[in-house]
Amino acid sequence: MVPGAVLAAKHMAWHAMHVASTTDLTGLTSATLSAYFFYWAFQRIPSWIKEDISFRNLLKNRSDASKEELASLFLVVEKLQYTAKSISELDIEVPQLYASLLAFIQLSGQMKQKQIDHCSYKSDVDESDNILHDKSETIRDTLYETAGKAFDLSSLRSHEIQDALRMATFAYYDDSDTLAKKLDGRDYTLIHHRLHFRPGKIAHYIAVSPMKRQVVIGLRGTSTLSDFCTDCCGRAVPFVDDSSHGDKGRFEIKAAETNTVLDSPKDGIVEIVSGHERIVSEDHDDDGDNFPRVHEGVLIAARNVINEIREFLFPLIECQYEVTFCGHSLGAGTAVVCAMLLRSKYPEIFLKPKGIHVYAFGAPPVLDHDTAIAARMYCTTIVNNSDLISRLNISNLVTSLMCLRKIQEKLSELEMCPIGPVSSVKFLNKLAEGISGDSLITPSELEQTILDAHSDLTLRHPQHLFLPGRVLLVYESWLNEREESNSIGERRTFQCVQTAGTSAVFQRLEIDGLRCLTDHLTSSYFEILGIDYEF
Fold first, then answer.
1. Half-sphere exposure of 439 (CA within 13 A, CB side)
2. How far is CA 84 from the centre of its chain?
3. Helix or strand or coil: residue 305?
4. What is the SS3 assignment for 488?
5. Pairwise CA distance, residues 319 & 73, whole Å
6. DSSP-assigned letter for residue 188
């Protein structure tokens, strides 16, 4: 927990004890406490977050669309309920969910602090004994470091990736004149710009540079309640492009440059060996289980985008223009699926070195296991540190629910579930201890709970989705983070690994205070790419 949150918990504990003597608190619930806590946190959001264009868009008042959006929200809730019922792994009951969630946030902070203190103590002991060792690392840092191959920051901060982030962030502009001026400064001409406030449709633009012979499609991330509805329609559905007359999933997998295709005419099976996995695809699939599976809401949004830009985009493709899709958050996921939709009409552009490419910043998991890996040829996904959005999938939800149930059982054992005056005060006093107090469960118990959850999960479950393509994970070591926080004016030190969305590093949530949310902001992505924020 952040230090301010500790003060808030102490204040709530004092207030609860004061009121308990004169008020019946049987109605005080964990939901009330959670609402109070998050309202307090919202009021103290730092100014740099409020200045982020993606955050500002979330706070805009769009009253003209509110009724239609709210009507759609009920349909989304029904979809979510249907999805939850269809996945047996989600059948995990967690009484007092909100209290368990607050305790989990505190527990995450305690685990981080314990790992840092342990490594710092070990380093101090080694120095006092004149023993030379490599710098001690936390369990978390080791997980990140071993997630893939080390990737040079100078390559991460290439002009192509930096320009793609700028282009993705341009999509957050509402005003077409402002957008056109920004694009003109980068030698692009705006030819189409559309805003949307309905579920299944997202704001986007298309710009062209005759000098570079490039066309860029920028897609906006979640900015409205309608976008949130699109996010929530997260059921994995078969990807069937109507224009392809049943094009099979094997095309998508076979397209990857880094893969080796081994012809195996026996039984119509083609085996593909990739850098991460060994994938077997059926050439003929009467049952339909070999179709790629994608995020339902994102697929609907991508189809709508392609339908709206086809009259501008298709002639440019036929004129041999290079195509770049770029987006942040929901826009990033939609960009990937838009590229998939182009494959049936223009498969040849996937075979050219720079025919088409997608740059996805902070994308949510949108593709099934095999299709996510196969997208390596044409998709680069950049993930910033503990970005929560890039880890929101069914497998992580199941793991988190199991952790919350473990915490709830411990709260019940200690009589801390906030269901009355006494237990509520005990619960608030526990929160008031912050990260320096005793943890409800030990690190080994928490880790075992996570491992147990993973052992029960099937990664190729039809409803499990993953980050697409080549994934560049940028992270800051917890030890470096603490050292730099003690040094005024020091630039933050980042590291990067090249991995895949199926990596174990994305199979758990990292609740690091507010950072799991702020790491998702466009301004945070500008920071890791080493460029000034200009919005």
1. 22
2. 20
3. helix
4. coil
5. 42
6. -
Report the DSSP beta bridge partners of residue 495. 475
CA angle in degrees (0–180, nearest 5) for 469-448-392:
35
Q: What is the CA radius of gyration of the chain?
A: 24
Tell me the sheet residues that pair with 218. 205, 326
CA 362 to chain centre: 5
**pTM for this entry:** 0.80
Strands annotated E in 214-268: 214-219, 236-238, 260-262
The single-letter DSSP state of residue 136 is P
Residue 495 DSSP SS3: strand
| 8 Å CB contact between 323 and 215 | yes
* Burial of residue 392 (number of CB atoms within 10 Å: 0-12, 13-18, 19+): middle
- Starting at the edge strand found earlier in the chain, the sheet holding 495-500 runs 149-150, 495-500, 470-475, 379-384, 356-361, 322-328, 214-219, 204-209, 189-194
Q: How far is CA 16 from CA 81, 82, 323, in A?
A: 35, 39, 59
pLDDT tens profile 228-252: 888 888 888 888 765 544 444 344 4
Q: What domains are defined for the chain? A: 3-44+87-126+394-464 (no CATH), 165-242+290-384 (3.40.50.1820)
Token pair of 15 as six digits: 């207030």
The answer to whether residues 471 and 431 touch, using CB atoms and an 8 Å cutoff, is no
Whether residue 474 contacts residue 384, with contact meaning beta carbons closer than 8 Å, is answered with yes
Per-residue pLDDT tens over the stretch 92-104: 566 677 888 888 8
